[in-house]
């Protein structure tokens, strides 16, 4: 089984466990801050399921109707997760506002805090692992899932601090205030996640360092060619599509030009993992005398 699929399955199972723990903490205490924490865990479960579904689609090979593959399906999962985060934040603010109007005493705070702390530690460990592994595997869905878990960790930490202060001071108003702060943080993270995923859906270019690497590789390994220009790149999930024009002497045969292209494609795809290279060959009469000059 694909490693990214297996990680997404573990994420879904962990999300269900965390949800059960945080829902239990809320039911024990009646805290609106813990309610906000539990509500975010519901979003985690839905998002993990969406990520698993998107990954299963993204790993399908290219076909006649999708000649460039299905890798962009991962970004739809990340966008959905961002939207769900925003909806959760709105629900939390509404509940906190109601609690501000009619504060209520909290119960069994000690046990509730212990349960929430255990769930937070589980999230922190797996969220860190997901982000690191997702970046290594070039999986936007896994990175988004991990970032969501780490957002949950930060908000859970804030909730635990606020409820600890409630237990020490008896100031129950800190509970809804903390819930609103949690919601605002969730809104910021959700908006950033949606923005990042939308940029990728709109064919955002590869990072500048990747483009610089491609230019250097062309300059060093295109022996026999004269120059390269009109470099374009775009991301689609774990894939990076690269294309450019390569100028060769007019007297070169198709076979000679093809050999240079094969050499360039091999070295670029080796140095840029997940890349797919397309090269358009032109005669030297089409040279633009700009772009990459071959060494």
UniProtKB/TrEMBL annotation:
Pfam families linked to this entry: Cation_efflux, ZT_dimer
Domain of life, source organism? Bacteria
> Its topology with respect to the membrane?
Multi-pass membrane protein
**Which biological processes are named by the entry's GO terms?**
intracellular zinc ion homeostasis
In its UniProt entry, the species of origin is given as Deinococcus phoenicis
GO CC terms: plasma membrane
This protein is called: Putative cation efflux family protein, CzcD-like protein
Which residues are the signal sequence here? none
